Amino acid sequence: MKFTATQIAGILEGEVEGNPQITVHKLSKIEEGETGSLTFLANPKYTSYIYSTKASITIVNRDFAPEQELTTTLIKVDDAYKSFSKLLEYYNQVKSNKVGVEQPSFVSETAKYGEGFYLGAFSYLGDNVNIGDNVKIYPNVYIGENVTIGDNVLIFAGSKIYSESVIGNNCVIHSGAIIGADGFGFTPNEKGEYSKVPQTGNVILEENVDVGAGTTIDRATLGSTILRKGVKLDNQIQIAHNVEIGEHTAIAAQTGIAGSTKIGKYCLIGGQVGIVGHITIGDRVRIQAQSGIGRNVKDGEVLQGSPALNYGDYNKSYVHFKNLPKLVNTINEIEKKAKVDHD
Question: What positions constitute the catalytic site (predicted)?
Fold first, then answer.
């Protein structure tokens, strides 16, 4: 798909300096620009590259004044970085604007979907599935019975959404995500053998939730596992049964959250964090990567370590952790001297 400089300037409310009819069909970094590519200049330290780039079009701030001759056509905008991001969003919308049901696929006679619907090949829509407008479901996706999906949802290839799940408007679910699998519910008998506890709840994703590739969100034992609006999950995260995550909380890769834990709003949780079950984490909490959380956490706390400590206390303690061998040697020397003096 090709775009002219005039078309791009129209989208961005920008001004063209150079050839208005020059076309681009791909994106590039400014230092790696090639003919037919579009790039941008927002960071002043990359300014030198604009004079050597082979990119056909470069988005720049309105106050940019070239000091040498340029071969690239400029599109001047108020904020080059924001405009480039806007263009990426527009490009993704155009690229994903597929419609229709590809074959082979299975769509239950009781499934319903709205306008602008796309279903990729080898996908499955179960009984009583209800899907809104402008939903795009890519190949090899499974949607179980009684699932409800809102408007403008993207579900990428290979995702699995189990029965009874509810997906809100504007959610994005990346490849390999599994939503609604059974929670880890087993009970031991007197012999130490395990019997399965039925998992009869569901998963609810409110609007504007992003779920990363390979992430798993378990259904509740009773009730719902809930991700409130605006939650952002990275790849390969495990959310256990009956967990609730508050609005606009963001969680990085490989974090695991055990069952029935409640996490507040606007929290930031780093990668490889482990959180035990049945605790409450307050609003605007920050947890550094590889921390282990085994207690309730108050609003606004910043934690690091395993078990996690207050962030400031952790940093002070770490100074001593590094010096432990020296401290042990010093103590040993003091003990030896004290013993000699005593003898």
Answer: 241 (proton acceptor)
